[in-house]
Amino acid sequence: MLACVIDNQLCQSPEEATISVQDHGLLYGDGVFEGLRFYFGTVFKRQAHLDRLRDSAAALSLNIPLSDDDLCAMIQKGINASGIESGYIRLMITRGEGPLGLDPTTCSNSRCIVIVDQLNMVSAAALEQGATAIFASTRRLSSDQVDPRIKSLNYLNQIMAKLEAKAAGADEAIMLNSAGRIAEGTADNIFIVKAGQLLTPPTTEGALEGITRQTIIEIATTLGIEVKETPLAMFDLLTADECFLTGTGAELIPVTTIAGRKLGKLTEYQYYQKLSAAFLEVIRNCCKSQDEAG
Ligand code: PMP
What we know:
- By secondary structure, the protein is α+β, with helices and mostly antiparallel strands.
- The protein folds into two domains: 3-117, D-amino Acid Aminotransferase, Chain A, domain 1 (2-Layer Sandwich), CATH 3.30.470.10; 124-283, D-amino Acid Aminotransferase, subunit A, domain 2 (D-amino Acid Aminotransferase, Chain A, domain 2, Alpha-Beta Barrel), CATH 3.20.10.10.
- It has eight helices and 15 strands.
- Helix 6 packs across helix 8 (270-292).
- It is globular and about 55 Å long.
- The structure holds 4'-deoxy-4'-aminopyridoxal-5'-phosphate.
């Protein structure tokens, strides 16, 4: 069941959860968020998400009125109320209520919202057979526009790219940066395998510094797979042996068709198979050790 907590108050139902129409989070997308996952009741990479939330907020001079402990307590309240064993958490900070007009200094208290629910980014069929992706014509904003490290409440570029994917009958859109190189998916980072190497664009190419991306780089290194963070062109994706997306919501999504071209069969995606098995193992161990640490 979807559960919602606002400013540490559990809402009895989603309908009861209210945020002012004057909240600048709604009026202007002025706010930040994190997406987290919990497995068997334990939040995966919780501190990394809280740190990124604080960085996003600091970049926007947005006050987070709660300590990490308070945020964790809110998250736990949401998990408990949801009755879900393994699911997804949306943690949001909005600028708060203020008069019409952009000026964020006119806003009163920023609001903290936690929503706990299930999230499946692609269908079970896409996970089983491999997802399809297009190259979107909508570009990812670069760091001289809105720095991609800020996980803000404004995802309009990604939404436009997602609309392109849906119109083309594809599962996901791959976004390019203003120079025409690969940035990332709409809500996920991208990896390819080429000649035995695992390649991903540096986040300076216009991607969020994904926590799952970092986890996969660490896992691959441990497994002895050579990882290179290197700029990628459309050519590299079209000639890749394997391609997959990573994200908290996405977890690992294999992509077997890009712009109508078949890369390969999922059963032949050896690196993806190996890395997703190891990723599951890391989740299991991480949750176990967090449990033991209390
Ligand atoms: N890029 C974007 C734009 C995202 O919204 C997300 C999801 N948070 C990601 C990448 C993946 O990041 P993470 O692995 O930290 O969830």
